[in-house]
Every structure is written in C-alpha cells, then in structure tokens.
C-alpha cells in the first residue's frame, strides 16, 4: 500500500511524466506500483551467487523489475568480488551499485585500473543493450514474462535445466554463466539443445553439451542462441545524452522472429498507443540468410537514424530508417 500510495501521488503531481518508485519488499502484485530490490545483502561471494536464483524466482512470480546491490550493501568488497559482481549486475533488470555509509568506498575506480576497466566494459555493454532490455520490459509489462529467466523457462522439457540456478537468460537470446567464486578462471557451462555462439569469440557449439569455459577476470561467459536478434545502440554515459541516431541489429544465423518496442522513454503517452513496434525475422533461404524488417507499426516515430544490420561473422548492411519494409540478404 505504501508503494501504491507513492505511485498514485506521483501520478497526480506529474501525470505527464513517468516516475520511478523503488521498494524493498511487497506481495505479489507490487510490480504494478514499484520496482524491487532484494534488501541488505553483504559483500560475500555467497550473496553474489544467491542473487541469481532470488531474482529469477521473483521474475517467475511476476515481479520483473528487480535487482540486488552490486558489490554488497554491508561489508567491504574485494576488487575481484566487485569486478565479478559488476559483470553479473549487467544482467539485473535493476542495475544498481549501492553500499552502506559505514563501508569502504565501492566506486569502480577505488579498486584500481584493472577493475575500473572491467566495470567500464560491462557498464558500456549494458548501455549498448538498452534497446534489447527495453523491449524485454515491454514484454514483462504486457505479458508478465520475466526479464531475467532461469533456463527452465525456455527449456521446460530438459531436466538438466531444472536445478541449474547459476546460469541465467536475459530474455530469450542471451545466456550468461557468471563466476561466483574467488580465484576461479574456468567453469562448466551447460548449453541446452540448439546452436549456441560465444558472445566474445564467436565460437559455435551444438547443444545439448557441457563445455569448460575460460573466464579470466575480464570475462563473464556469455552465449547467444542461433537466430538471435539483438538491437544495440552506441555507448553513452547516460540514457538521454544524445538522440539515438544509430541502431545496430546484431543477428546470428538461424530462424527466429523478434519484436522491437520503442517509445519516447519519458512520458505516459505510450498508454495512449504512442509507441512503435517493429517485427524482425531471420531465416535461411537456399544458401543465404535473410533478415526481413517489417514496416514500423504505431504512432511513435523515432528521430532520424541509421540502421546497421550485422549478420555476425558474415558482414553488415546499412540503410536510413524510413519506417518501411526492408529485406536484406547475406
């Protein structure tokens, strides 16, 4: 009721703008009024590990906009723990670094150049993935689907996924296998049925298979399903730094369909259908991969921008976004 009262008060006093409400607890249904963080965790490897099943369970319960304090709220994170937690935190629907006033400083640069550079890389990746993540929030708001998902969500017929809590899916396309123990630079990763690609190296795997992933401190193992369509934007320092004049569609060979959701990101006009949806398909035809971008549907028009369609490992094509249908062959 506190979250609901806060939400309704903000609606009354700034009805034309969206407001951000954050609460530490609530019953199922609280997602209608607020995002949620998981409370006062500690700077412990075990709490980094626990965050994954906690957030996935919240998502399965309908509460999708959730996160944990990166680095731990109570206690002092080590450089290695902070770097690994920032990598995992890039996946959290609510990505927030936070600590108590009584702890040591937890800014990335406190831990030295190596950790600062790792944090910068993963924060930059988070900003680049915002179009993909934003569409996941739309999906959560309209269907109740979680944003951060356990593997069993997409592979319910594979018993190996039922107790697999330390690998997570961000949406349907990206799968991470984070490191959550000190001194670890390799870990076993389970890839369910289908074709998977290593996000970093491009290596291809045919599942179901267990692999041993190399994960030095700079790397969180990250994989992409075949047919994935991942919209990305240029790196920015904050969301509204500049108009989005370029969007990159990273596409992996396969067969898939994807909907990109967009709106102004600020107002409540999306509730009056002032948004746009773009349907994107990838499929194989003869010896070619075809990417079809349907005509944009909806009342919202993005700023002038260039669209780059990248078939990963093959090449890219560009065009000015006119909202019309485009069919590209690779």
Written account of the structure:
There is one protein chain. With 330 residues, the protein is of the alpha+beta class. It folds into three domains: 19-143, TIM Barrel; 148-225, Sandwich (Immunoglobulin-like); 229-329, Immunoglobulin-like, CATH 2.60.40.1180. The protein has five helices and 20 strands. It has helices spanning 2-13, 45-60, 79-89, 113-128, 130-143, and strands at 22-23, 35-37, 66-67, 69-70, 96-97, 148-150, 168-170, 174-176, 186-198, 204-214, 222-225, 229-232, 246-251, 256-262, 276-285, 288-293, 297-298, 306-311, 315-320, 326-329. The strands form five sheets. Strands 6-7-8-11-9-10 form a six-stranded antiparallel β-sheet, covered by helices on one side. Strand 7 and strand 8 form a beta hairpin. The radius of gyration is 20 Å and the shape is globular. The model has no long low-confidence stretch (mean pLDDT 97).
Can you lay out the helices and strands and say which pair or pack?
Blueprint lengths: L1 H12 L8 E2 L11 E3 L7 H16 L5 E2 L1 E2 L8 H11 L6 E2 L15 H16 L1 H14 L4 E3 L17 E3 L3 E3 L9 E13 L5 E11 L7 E4 L3 E4 L13 E6 L4 E7 L13 E10 L2 E6 L3 E2 L7 E6 L3 E6 L5 E4 L1
């Amino acid at each position: 009721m506190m979250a609901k009262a806060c939400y309704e008060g903000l609606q009354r006093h700034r009805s034309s703008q969206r407001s951000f409400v954050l609460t530490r607890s609530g019953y199922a249904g609280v997602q209608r009024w607020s995002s949620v963080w998981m409370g006062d965790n500690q700077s412990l490897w075990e709490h980094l590990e626990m965050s994954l099943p906690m957030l996935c369970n919240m998502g399965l319960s309908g509460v999708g906009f959730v996160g944990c304090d990166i680095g731990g709220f109570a206690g002092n994170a080590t450089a290695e723990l902070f770097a690994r937690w920032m990598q995992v935190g890039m996946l959290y629907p609510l990505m927030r670094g936070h600590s108590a006033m009584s702890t040591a400083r937890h800014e990335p640069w406190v831990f030295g150049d190596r950790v600062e550079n790792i944090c910068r890389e993963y924060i930059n990746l988070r900003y680049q993935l915002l179009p993909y993540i934003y569409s996941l929030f739309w999906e959560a708001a309209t269907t109740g689907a979680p944003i951060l998902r356990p593997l069993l969500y997409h592979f319910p017929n594979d018993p190996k996924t039922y107790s697999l809590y330390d690998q997570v899916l961000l949406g349907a396309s990206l799968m991470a296998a984070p490191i959550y123990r000190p001194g670890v630079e390799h870990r076993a990763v389970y890839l369910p049925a289908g074709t998977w690609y290593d996000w970093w190296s491009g290596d291809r795997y045919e599942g179901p298979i267990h692999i041993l992933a190399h994960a030095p401190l700079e790397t969180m193992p990250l994989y992409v399903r075949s047919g994935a369509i991942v919209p990305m934007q240029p790196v920015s320092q904050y969301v509204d730094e500049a108009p989005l004049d370029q969007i990159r569609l990273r596409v992996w060979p396969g067969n898939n369909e994807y909907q990109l959701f967009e709106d102004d990101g600020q107002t409540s006009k999306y509730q009056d259908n002032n948004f746009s949806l773009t349907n994107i398909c990838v499929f194989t035809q003869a010896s070619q991969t075809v990417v079809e971008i349907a005509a944009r549907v909806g009342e919202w028009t993005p700023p002038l921008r260039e669209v780059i369609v990248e078939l990963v490992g093959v090449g890219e094509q560009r065009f000015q976004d006119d909202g019309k249908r485009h069919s590209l062959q690779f």
